[in-house]
TrEMBL record:
InterPro entries according to UniProt: PfkB_Carbo_kinase (IPR050306), PfkB_dom (IPR011611), Ribokinase-like (IPR029056)
Record GO terms (molecular function): kinase activity
Pfam family, one: PfkB
Stretches assigned to the Carbohydrate kinase PfkB domain: 21-242
Annotated family: Belongs to the carbohydrate kinase PfkB family.
Species annotation: Vallitalea pronyensis
The protein's name in its UniProt record: Carbohydrate kinase
Keyword Secreted found: no
SUPFAM superfamilies: Ribokinase-like (SSF53613)
UniProt KW keywords: Kinase, Transferase
Length: 298
């Protein structure tokens, strides 16, 4: 079984209409969703010492996700303010990362040795980890970074050279523009793939020079919070796990059935895109990114 690490941001999503906050954040969501799928998952990030930070920390521990290497700083945990419009989450404000932004993580030698144990390390543009990407590249087996819809060309060029997989959210873009951007990101140095989520239009994935399209599993959503994160998590964990298993099986058994690794990769990608669409749709039936709501006061 593979092991994965969510590295960077955690927040609470404060739903201003119901006055309920839910744990979330791109890097933490990755660890939680991997855990839901049955993958051994850990999280490394910074918690604030307020009620929000305590709620996220306690929830993460209760889910069985390892948090042994996390930091705890005095100040506000990251939060985002959210409303729902017909089940679609809409962000209306934030404290821009809270303690994670005020005290960006600096990876120690102990952290890097720990990171080297994982098959996937996933981070994001909300994690304030950009200055550490060079270090991360030297120790991470497979590095994934989600840029959401917060990027410039210069930012992508600076980051993509250090990562294996880049993800972007681009539901408002036309497909031909998305495809060109994905090609550019590969040219910027992204080692293996780019994932583009397009909301109700599904996803596009570029692996090398090959593009794949996955339609969504359409449902009546309770809350679309985490839809893209869950899709990316399910696809990446399935892809890396299946590729590792297939290559190892061939080496150990001498099996000649897998005669062409590219054909095998193609099947793995298609199967896991389908699984990811189904998993993402299920996530949209719960409140918040993965539930565990708690009332808050302003």
């Amino acid at each position: 079984m593979i092991r994965v690490l969510g590295l960077g941001d955690n927040v609470v999503d404060k739903y201003i209409d119901s006055k309920i906050m839910y744990p979330g954040g791109n890097a933490l969501n990755f660890a939680v969703y991997a855990n839901m799928i049955g993958i051994k998952a850990s999280y490394l990030g910074i918690f604030g010492d307020d009620e929000a930070g305590s709620h996220v920390y306690q929830t993460t521990k209760a889910l069985g996700i390892t948090v042994d290497h996390c930091r705890y700083d005095k100040g506000e945990n990251g939060y985002a303010k959210v409303t729902l419009e017909d089940g679609d989450r809409v962000f209306v404000g934030s404290n821009k990362g809270g303690v994670s932004a005020k005290h960006p993580m600096v990876l120690s030698d102990v952290d890097l040795a720990y990171i080297s144990e994982f098959d996937i390390v996933h981070t994001s543009c909300f994690s304030y980890i950009e200055k550490e990407l060079g270090k991360l590249r030297k120790f991470g087996k497979f590095i994934s970074m989600d840029f959401s819809n917060r990027y410039t060309r210069e930012y992508l060029q600076a980051c993509c050279q250090h990562i294996d997989c880049a993800s972007i959210s681009c539901s408002d873009m036309k497909d031909h523009d998305i495809i060109q951007l994905m090609k550019d990101m590969m040219a910027y140095g992204c080692k293996e793939m780019v994932i583009a989520t397009r909301g109700s239009r599904g996803a596009l994935v570029c692996v090398g020079d090959t593009f794949y399209e996955q339609s969504p599993c359409l449902i009546e959503a309770t809350d679309t919070m985490g839809a893209g994160d869950s899709f990316i998590t399910a696809f990446l964990t399935g892809y890396i796990s299946d590729m590792k298993h297939g290559v190892n099986f061939r080496k150990e058994s001498g099996d000649k059935g897998i005669t062409n690794i590219e054909d095998y990769r193609d099947l793995v990608i298609k199967a896991n895109l389908y699984r990811a669409a189904i998993f993402s749709s299920k996530v949209c039936t719960c409140n918040g990114a993965f539930g565990f709501g708690k009332r808050y006061k302003e």
